[in-house]
Amino acid sequence: MATNVIETTNLTKKFGKFLAVDSLDLQVPKGGIYGFLGPNGAGKSTTIRMLLGLMKETGGQVHIFGKSIKEERLEILKRVGSMVETPSYYGHLSAYENLEVTRKILGIEKKEINRVLEIVKLTDVQNKVVKKFSLGMKQRLGIAQALLGSPELLILDEPTNGLDPSGIIEMRELIKSLPEKYGMTVLLSSHILSEIELMATHVGIINKGQLLFQGTMDELRAKQKAEIALEVEPQAVVEDYLNEIGIPYKKDDHYFYLNANYQPSRINRELIMNGFEVHQVLVKKHSLEEIFLSMTTGKGEIIQ
C-alpha cells in the first residue's frame, strides 16, 4: 500500500463566519501526481497555504511525511518545493541570478542551479533578464526555484494559469516527467479538468471548501455511467407505458434516458411491438466534464 506523503484530518479554515475549507481529509500518495481540482474560489489556494504553514488553520491537522506542520514546519519545508499562484522573481536580474538568490537562502550547492535550469529547459536563456521572459518562461523559472534542493514533494498552485496552448503543453510534459525521472510527489491544483485528466494519477475534487471526491483517475472514470437515450413518439403515451412497466426514466424535449442496465435491443423491440415509433436508440456515456459539473454545480444530473 502506498504511503501518503500528505494527510490532513478535518482541516478547516474560517474567515469570520465564512467557511472557506470544511473538514478536509486529503490523502496524497507517494510518487504520483495528485490533481487538486475545483472551481475558482473552491478553497484550493487556502488549503495549499495551510499545507505549507503559510496560513493558520481554524481546526484540524496537517501531516506531511508523517510529521505535523505545526510542530516540525521547518524540517518539513526542507523537503518541499512550492509555487503558490504567480512565481516570485526579480525582473531586472537574469534567470541564473534569480536562482542564485534562492540558492543562497537555501544554503545549497551552486551546481543545483545548472541542474534545475536543465530540467525546465531554460539553460539557453539563463543570462537573459527575467522581465523579458514570456509568461511560460516565468512559470518555468518559478518551477526551477521550487526544484532547487531536490524536494521530495512539489506543490504547484495553478501552474498553467494564463499560458498559451504551447506553454500549457510544455508545462504539462514537464510536470508529468517529475515523478518518474526524479522520484517526486506532485500536488497540482487546477480548475481545468482536462489538464488534470492528462497529468494526474490521483484526484481530489473540492467545491465550497468540501472534498466531494478523492481517488485514482481510474476510479473517477468508473463514474462515467452509460445511459440509453431513446427518441420515440408519442412522448406522452411513452411516459404512461414506461411508468406502467416500472422502468425509471428522465426526459427532455427530445429523448427519454434510461439506465444502461436495460438491454437497448429489448427496449427497442418492446416499444415497436407496442406500436410506438422509435427513431433512435443511443447508448451514451457521461464525460468526465459532465461528472465534474454534476459534482460542483448540481447540473447535468447523472442517472445512478
Number of separate structural domains: 2
Figure out the total of helices.
Answer: 11
Please state the average pLDDT score.
86
Side-by-side strand order of the widest sheet = 7-8-9-4-10-11
Assign the structural class, choosing from mainly alpha, mainly beta, alpha/beta, alpha+beta, or little secondary structure.
alpha/beta
Percentage beta strand: 25-35%
Major sheet attributes: 6 strands, mixed
Helix content: 25-40%
CATH superfamily of the largest domain: P-loop containing nucleotide triphosphate hydrolases
Q: Tell me the series of helices and strands, N- to C-terminal.
A: EEEEHEEHEHHHEHEHEEHEHEEHEH
**CATH class category of the largest domain:** Alpha Beta
Task: Give a description of the structure.
By secondary structure, this protein is of the alpha/beta class. It folds into two domains: 214 residues, P-loop containing nucleotide triphosphate hydrolases (Rossmann fold, 3-Layer(aba) Sandwich); 60 residues, Alpha-Beta Plaits, CATH 3.30.70. Helices cover 36% and strands 28% of the residues. It has eleven helices and 15 strands. It starts with a strand and ends in a 7-residue tail after the last helix. The C terminus is likely disordered.
Topology at a glance:
Elements: E1 4-15, E2 18-24, E3 27-29, E4 33-37, H1 44-51, E5 59-64, E6 67-68, H2 73-77, E7 80-83, H3 95-106, H4 111-119, H5 135-147, E8 153-157, H6 165-182, E9 185-190, H7 193-199, E10 202-207, E11 210-216, H8 217-221, E12 226-233, H9 235-245, E13 250-251, E14 256-259, H10 264-273, E15 277-285, H11 288-297
Parallel strand pairs: 4-9, 4-10, 7-8, 8-9
Antiparallel strand pairs: 1-2, 1-3, 1-5, 5-6, 10-11, 12-14, 12-15, 13-14
Helix pairs in contact: 3-4, 4-5, 5-6
